Amino acid sequence: MKNFISIIVPCYNEQSTIRHLLDAILAQTYPCAQIELVISDGMSTDKTREVIADFQSEHPDLSIRVVDNTTQTIPAALNQAIKNSRGEIIIRLDAHSMPIPEYAERCVAAHNAGKGANIGGVWEIRPGANTWVAESISFAAAHPLGVGDAMYRLNAKEGAVDTVPFGSFRRDLLDKIGMFDETLLANEDYEFNTRVRESGGVVWLDPTIRSVYFSRSTFGKLAVQYWRYGFWKLQMLKRYPHTLRWRQALPPIFVLSLFVLLVLSLFFGLARWLLAAQLILYFSALGAAALKLAVEKRRPFLFIGLPFAIATMHISWGAAFLWSALKKLNHG
Q1: Which of 49, 45, 42, 7 has the alpha carbon at shortest distance from 27?
Q2: How confident is the model at residue 155 (pLDDT cuts 50, 70, 90)?
Q3: Which of 18, 61, 144, 216 could form a disulfide linkage to 14, CB 3.0–4.6 angstroms apart?
């Protein structure tokens, strides 16, 4: 008998992408009778629930349960879905994702082979809309200058890692390390995986476990996403300071240096020169990377779009991290 699995999905106003996820789960090579899908919806105000209901009526053979996430945060959504699930193995996905047909089968096989306590794969990032801005963001979200050394977005090799997106784990892992931390409104997966590793478990990356992830469609939405990441990253580091990586320190240092030089430039000519030199070097590096990619992919718009997207990610993340630190100082 195959392991019974629960696929859990946090969701809020995802009418444009939720059908991609539902179709992908229906197409899984794993037996449909051994799958349940639990969607924790943050009280969507668009047609997300209608899309799900229509899909349920078309495909009654797939068990789908929608539960209310009145707290309207991602970690609360995950915990709510887990509490309403029955699976021996839990697979965490996202309403912006589209797993390959073998996704569930390969997750279960890796667990049965004893590869790790939390097992995940890699992302293929696609634009969230059919625009040059959305396409630029999708390239930025997979570029080393945008994501540093995050292996699940780069050319990954199988092995133990710090974290994986959309991990899968046996239910009894929760008895050992607890549920997702609902006091963190972002970075909940990284914090969860930190507890996995500190409990002696292995977080395992298998590059054959693949999913499409639809990136944000506008620079505004990208800025909001990375502001949330940066703000809550400090809260994570307060608990686990040893998890800080060099790439995570660069955006706040960069933003702080810009702010300091901007203030000093009001009074000192040297500061103006240093500020100009820093911005020229920064955008020259982004421009060179963008030109290379624009030529390789034959997409001229990347010469403008990629630097703007990466700068949005860096500045939003860094500024939010500093703002979080300032709020912490003000509140003791």
Answers
A1: 7
A2: low
A3: 18
Q: Collapse the DSSP code of 240 into the 3-class scheme (helix H, G, I; strand E, B; otherwise coil) and give the result.
A: coil
Q: What is the 3-state secondary structure (H, E, C) of 145-169?
A: HHHCCCHHHCCCCCEECCCCCCCEE
Give the residue among 261, 288, 290 at the shortest CA–CA distance from 277: 261
Quote the CA–CA distance of 91 and 37 in Å, as a whole number.
9
Residue pair 107/89 in contact by the 8 Å Cβ criterion: yes
Q: Is residue 154 predicted with pLDDT exceeding 60?
A: no
Predicted structure pTM score: 0.86
Amino acid occupying residue 130: N
Reply yes or no on whether the pLDDT at 276 is more than 70: yes
> Do 4 and 10 form a contact (C-beta atoms < 8 A)?
no
User: Residue 291: CB partners within 8 Å, gap ≥ 6?
Assistant: 303
Residues 182-209 have pLDDT tens digits of 988 888 898 999 999 999 999 999 999 9
Q: What domains does the chain contain, in order, with CATH numbers?
A: 5-217 (3.90.550.10), 235-330 (no CATH)
pLDDT higher than threshold 80 for residue 331: no
Local structure of 126: helix, strand or coil:
strand
What would the two tokens of residue 276 be? 């100009």
